[in-house]
Amino acid sequence: MKIARFIKYSLTALTLSASINAFALPSFVDNTKLMYFPPLVDQKGGSCAQASGIGYMFTYEINRLLDRNASASTANQFAYLFTWNFVNDGGDNGGFVDEGLMIARNFGVMTEADYGFASVYQFKWASGYEKYHNASRYRVKKITKYDATTEAELQKIKQYLYDHGDGSKAGGLLTFSTRSSDWKIDDYYKGPSQTGYKSILTKLATTGAHALTIAGYDDTVESTDADGNIHYGAFIVVNTWGNWWADKGRFYLPYYFFTNRENVSEISLSSTMQGCDVYVHEPKIMFKIRVNYSSRNDLRLTYGADPNPYAQSTPNNYNSIIVANQGGDYAMTGSYGDENTKGILEFGIDYTDHMTSDDAQYGRYFLNIVRSQRGTKVGEGTIDYLSVYDYRGSKPVEYVCRNIKGKTLRLGNNSFSFSTLHPGHFSASSLSTLDERGNVSNKTYIVRTANGHIAKLKFSGSSNNINMNYTFLK
Prior knowledge:
By secondary structure, this protein is of the alpha+beta class. The protein has three domains: 25-279, Alpha-Beta Complex (Cathepsin B, Chain A); 285-430, Lipoxygenase-1 (Sandwich), CATH 2.60.60; 431-474, no CATH class. The chain contains eight helices and 22 strands. It is elongated. It starts with a helix and ends with a strand. 38% of the residues are buried.
């Protein structure tokens, strides 16, 4: 009996707690009215997922974190085309919000100020090391999915929209997917509301995939389903088709479309929504790379570091999430541009997440550019610059790999390494340890050492573990 009474009282307490939380929520929230919400996006091409996830949600969350006005400057807005052009395979293709958020989590996102203007069919990759260094600061910490099929689940979503689910003074945004080509939207809604929008969805679409952003809710909105039943409450949805569409780009999406899912497929309306937590990251060690290449689909990068300045290889090679057999058969910066420069891409790759500790010291850095034959066009080109910046001191220190400017990128592995014994431009061998097929070269070299001796030099092993053998001749 005591156990039964305990369970009864515990359940009552939980019910009361849920009721109190529900009662505590205001009847409406509209986060588009906050200064953190950016100007409306008029998406280019099939970039709706990135426009929704990066252009709206990520931009809003960074500005909410930093308590700044998203509309004050393009430096406060984030370029959804930056992520889109890494995931669209060089075409006007759609994608998923998660793809952009993963780039934001593992690399970062470039600001609109740094990215600049781009047309849809340019499929632009911006060039400039400092732009990538700045982009690497703005990151996703966590991606959270919310189920959205029951009243209780919608209550949690409303709580998130109100206070981010953690008592914050401003709530969050969420993204979801739906069809959109033949949906029915009434642009003359005259029913009750506290947020004042005049457009409301009355019928789900049956074709055309689309991603959208939920920025608030209004419990007083009334809607009627196909059977004449009246339902209360709706989410405030922001589209990415510009300010002219619907009611300044916004419309009501009644709750019942999520909870009454009979004959509603996941493609027609997703049963989940997703949000993200963000943070500002400070890069400590970062590679600076410049290549000149004619088909970016061909290239992918691995990189690493070792404490030993004389190491021949590193046991830990990491894959880059950008410049990873992406972007189509175009020159590095896009489908068109100055013929003399469009193949030149200068960018950065952050190594900080792979450091064993904040004060870890590395004696040698490694970069491998793997060139393959992807797509219909076989590219060609060179590496023109490679260095590493260490930002942990009072001022940045750059360690430069010398004698690589104009070095041809051959099929297979193109491995480069350099020591940090001396910062700046220092002497390094210009000999290639690999042949044109990416195998260890079988050539024998005669070299002069720093103290004037002559030595015979030969390489052996594999491309991932190169051994150097030498014999002094005099």
